Structures
1.
Amino acid sequence: MKLILNEEELYLKETAKNFAENSTPVNHFRSLRDNDDPQLWSEDIWKEMVALGWSSILIPEEYGGSDFGLTGICAILQECGKTLAPSPLFATGVLGAYALTHFGNDAQKSEYLPKIASGDITTAVAVDESNHHNPSLTETSAVQDGENFILNGKKTLVVDGASADIIIVLARTSGNPGENTGLTMFLVDKKDLEIKKLSMADSRNYANIYLDNVTVSKNNILGDIEAGGDSMDSLLDVGRIAMAAEMLGSTEAAFETTLNYLKERKQFGVEIGSFQALQHRAAQMFCEIELTKSAVMGATKGADENSNDLQRLASLSKSIAGDTFHLVSNESVQMHGGIGVTDEYDIGFYLKRARVCEQIFGSSNFHKERYANLSGF
């Protein structure tokens, strides 16, 4: 496994870098937040991303995609993470596209994948039901009623759930909470759900979703019935890797912003970057970022090469990316001093984003324990 980008992937990364810097700088994110934008991403910007082919990277060519692989879209997410570029790319271009490509039947693929590729619909994945990530604890029920299923329950912290057209809901068709068996994934239209926008510190699009006797046709089962636990694990691992890539980009931007501040800010007549104590802390951050790059690249390449070790690679990348983002965002604010926690400076946005992203699809502690269990410890 070569931990480098090929020529096509480098082109994608450079294109994304230019787009993020010119079309979605941090001020774009700030503007959406300040104007209380209901979905917290721009339709026009999303159309531009779709025109660049980003929404279709994981979709097979026969359905209008490029089938370019996870490494390609993660290179884009890394660059978007640097400017906190708001879009449904993660929830739709990664989660929705992967889920339907790998678990959808022919009819579902034909119905939804071309619409994702063209930007006509967006998706979200509703899995968690509490503040702690653990899909096996799913209590949301799906009871069969003839040709339909009746769903009841609640889902929390659904990324892009406040604006998604189609929600992939994990529900229990048999068994008890704590069991990874008896789980099934359903495709549910937003019009059938009660969706409440969730305000989080990082001003991203999240929602809590409530299901009250929601009727879903058996034709909307995604994958095999009662095989949703394993399917969701696979989907979440891809999401964890993609989130790690986005977090890496945000970490790099926070570090670069802080380095520039250390070179510009003067105290006692000299740049504060000349103080050895701050140099040591900056060097530590640099080392952790380099390790994170390797972990994320290893995971994306592992996914594209169908590695048998993907579960461990996903947990490793998400855990390391979370820890590094936490460290760098903390240190960055500290090195900026009091100005770092003011809304005037961008650096505080990265601290807030770190705190929320750490929890999405499993915290660092969750993945350390999972990695240990998968390794036989």
Note: Strands lie at 123-126, 141-145, 148-159, 166-172, 183-189, 194-198, 206-217, 221-222, 266-267, 270-271.
2.
Amino acid sequence: MNDFNDLQNRIKTSKHLDFGNILNDAIALFKKGWLQGFLMLLLQFVLILPLMLVVYIPMLFLGGLNFQVFDKEVASVLALIIFVLVSLFAILTISVVAFAIQAGFFRICRQLDRGENQGFDYLYFLKRKYLSKIATIMLIALGINIAAVLLCVLPVFYVAIPIAMIPVVFAFNTHLSASDIVKLSFDLGNKKWFLIFGLTLVSAFLSELVGVLMCGIGLFLTMSFIFVPKYFVYKETLGFDEDIVINEIGVTNM
């Protein structure tokens, strides 16, 4: 396990990353893991759809109430409180589930990158020991987004990149606190902002183009490609302990 300061230092002293190499590596890995990416998106849909329906339950409930028997002012306040509370809970739950499954996909990317072809656990992070930390991360990210919105539109555009890196940082550093994971994500996002932004645009364009060429339905098979370059940005910037040890052994034997 790496401590927070060591990981921060890796980001600060990281080398320049080549856009083309990252994209080529991402394409090569996606060829191995497109099915896992599709299953990740399918799981998100299956698990999140029922939660989205929860948001509409209070609407139906409130629509069926006879507000004439209540004081109009009291009834409107009651309706607003119920709707806000249920909606906030549903939105937080949806965010936690989507985040956990996405982090699980990054873990699978690591397995595929190492040549492992079995033992994939898409729900690895949907466990009690991770859920509270993920929920805390989601609340921190929400606070950052709200602050960015209050400042102006441009900060929202800027913080979107570091926030997008949070799942991959979390996936390989679950031992860190929620605040440290967010800080590392912003350090990484700020350091490689233009690279990540460019990779996101290109990967989104390629996934959509290939999906359309596959008669539209292929979009469901290619959408997950947008996540893969982020894995390689993390790998080439912070690295993994086993890779670092192998490199050190190789240098020693030269």
Note: Residues 111 and 117 are 7 Å apart (CA to CA).
3.
Amino acid sequence: MRQKYLILYLLKQLGGTIEGETKLQKLVFLGKEEFELPFSFSYSWENFGPFSGELRDILSNLENEGLIKIEEKKRLSPLGDPFSIRVYKLTKKGSKYLLEHIAEINKNTKKHIEELIDIYGKQDLKNILNYVYKTYSPEEVH
């Protein structure tokens, strides 16, 4: 099963949009670890926990194919410091592409993605990071 179908389906289940690469990275990581989703990405422990350069590359490829759009949004921290956050959006072309390939995602995988979103999708990043930091250690991430 191709990784990009899973990512597109994940985005669709999130309502077509997710704010923040860190949150997306953690959702995919938790999907792999806790829901046995067939993601084959390798992870390393970075500043904000598990990170996959392979996932970042696939997201970039999806944008180059016009299947998702990645936008930079300017924000202010609680202390008033400016920072940028990436917003990932499923495009019309991406939705159509997913519809054409949806049969390649098996029923159990779809169910597990939906469960992942039900549990973690609406949580804010701080809660997800706290959970990941408490549950996983750098030595366990691969």
Note: Residues 114 and 135 are 21 Å apart (CA to CA).
4.
Amino acid sequence: MKTQMKKELSPEVVAVEKHGAERSHLIRILHEVQREYNYLPEKALRNIAAMMDISLVDVYGVATFFRSFSLEPKGKHMVTCCMGTACHVRNSGGVLDEAKRHLGIEPGETTGDMLFSLETVNCLGACALGPVVVVDDKYYGEMTPARVRKVLKKVAEEEGRGQDDQD
């Protein structure tokens, strides 16, 4: 019975119970909640503020200060293209252009089917592998426009959604 009740709890309740309501745990809690929802819904932020006895303004302040948090729904799969100097000189711009073309979105946007979100970063710290693209925490090095297209197609196919119409 206890296990069944645990499954019914919202991700924010589970995260606060797991980490504790101390203010110093807020960032960890927000990360955990975002992992569950793929963004930070307003209702979750309100619940976190109430459970931790922190003002909603303070919770929003943290959620909007760090770029890793999003208040907007994100796609199931996050695609991150490195635009750092080492990647740039190896054609990361061409790789990004192909990702944009293939997905039909710009950096900071999400596909209409909520399958992909695209973002750029200044450096991923894997300069020797450049250009680098990260899809769902998996690093792909020495990317080319053709390789990024192949990776994105594979992810879509694994989800049962071919993207042949975008070739």
Note: The chain has a mean pLDDT of 91.
